[in-house]
Amino acid sequence: MTAQTSNLQHEHVFLGEDHDRNTRRIWLVIALTASMMVAEIAAGTWYGSMALVADGWHMSTHASAMLISAVAYLYARRQAHNPRFTFGTGKLGDLAGFASAIILALIALLMAYESVLRIANPVPISFSQAIGVAVLGLAVNVLSAWLLKDDHHHHGHAHGHSHGDHGSHAHQGDHAHHGSHAHHGDHASHAPRATDNNMRAAYVHVIADALTSVLAIAALLLGSLYGWLWLDPLMGIVGGVIIAQWAWGLMKASGAVLLDTLPAAGDLPKAIRKVVETDGDEITDLHVWQVGPGHHAAIVAVATSAPRAPSFYKEKLAMLGQLSHVTVEVTPMAAKKAA
Q1: CATH fourth-level superfamily of 11-154+193-258
Q2: What is the rounded end-to-end Cα distance, in angstroms, of the chain?
Q3: Where are the domains of the chain?
Q4: Residue 162: which region, alpha, beta or left (left: phi > 0; alpha: psi -120 to 50)?
Q5: Coil, strand or helix: which one is 171?
Q6: CATH (one of 3.30.70, 2.30.170, 2.60.40, 1.10.10) for 169-190+265-338
Q7: 124-162: string of b/e by CB count within 10 Å (b at 16+)?
Q8: Pairing status of strand 169-171 against strand 282-292
């Protein structure tokens, strides 16, 4: 490989800006949840409390689901420079988010199913002990939610990999096509806050568990006062429905990224056209997709009566902070018409 060729090479690292921070926090929440799970199962077994044992195993399902998020972060970081991943590993988080959404949906169905069985066959409830377990579980979930909450508001944070003008090349032929491949990095960014579906999945798991605890506490308090045993399983059905809705929203968001579908409210294609389509230039083909949290790739084909180097359009597009990987092809307008 010559020195010139080496200078044209670049990497495709499109991880979210808070990737490592999120990884550390999820592992911390997993440790917290797993510790609480072991303590509850051990105490429940020692003192003969089925409420403690049941809540402990319930926590294990959420710890297992969050483990998917943690492993996805770890794998994405370790394989970030692997050339076999054509556009990097930034979308592994969305894959993990989709898997977590399915697990959430299954938990919701299981909650509803068990609640229906309880309504049909009521069982005695030790209210004081059950309330204590629910309050303890809620405290752990509130702490976990605080750890996972995205409290960074540094909009417009530049992504730390600048590669300048990479891979400009021209294809000589009947239409005099010019191709340019750009990797945008340290430029002014006006992009909205990126959504990390992997972190969102872990957060939803914790919030879902907290919601279950809140509904349980309310049902148990009212049940202890008025003897309404049916209220506890009814709250289980309500919680299952709400969690199922959250799971569906997460599934749609992460699935859309996996299928290279831009959000309906996304204005990036419109912004690209506004920047490029000036002075008679026309975009004849445009593809935009997400390659990681806060990172998008674009292929832009431009027809123009006054051909300019692809780098001209690349420099214009550098103002769009969401674009991290751009390929530009320029076709003279006369050649386009002749075709």
Answers
A1: Cation efflux protein transmembrane domain (1.20.1510.10)
A2: 37
A3: 11-154+193-258, 169-190+265-338
A4: beta
A5: strand
A6: 3.30.70
A7: ebebebbbebbebbbebbebbbebbebeeeeeebebebe
A8: unpaired
> Any bridge partners for residue 219, and if so which?
none
**CA–CA gap between residue 314 and residue 180 (Å, rounded):** 8
Rounded to whole angstroms, how far apart are CA atoms 14 and 26? 20
Residue 222: burial class (beta carbons within 10 Å; 0-12, 13-18, 19+) = middle
* Paired tokens of 269: 């294609």
CA distances from 286 to 160, 222, 226, 270, 317 (A): 26, 59, 64, 10, 13
Distances from the Cα of 118 to the Cα of 49, 115, 230, angstroms? 18, 5, 8
**β-pair partners for 29:** none
β-bridge mates for residue 169, sequence order: 179
Give the model's confidence band at 52: pLDDT under 50 very low, under 70 low, under 90 confident, else very high. low
Task: Give the model confidence (pLDDT) of 232-276 as tens digits.
Answer: 888 888 888 988 999 999 999 999 999 998 766 668 889 999 999
The full DSSP string for 279-312 is TT-EEEEEEEEEEETTEEEEEEEEEESS---HHH
Contact call for residues 330 and 307 (beta carbons, < 8 A):
yes
**pTM of this prediction exceeds 0.90:** no
* 3-state SS, residue 187: coil
Q: What gap in Å lies between CA 62 and CA 56, rounded to an integer?
A: 10
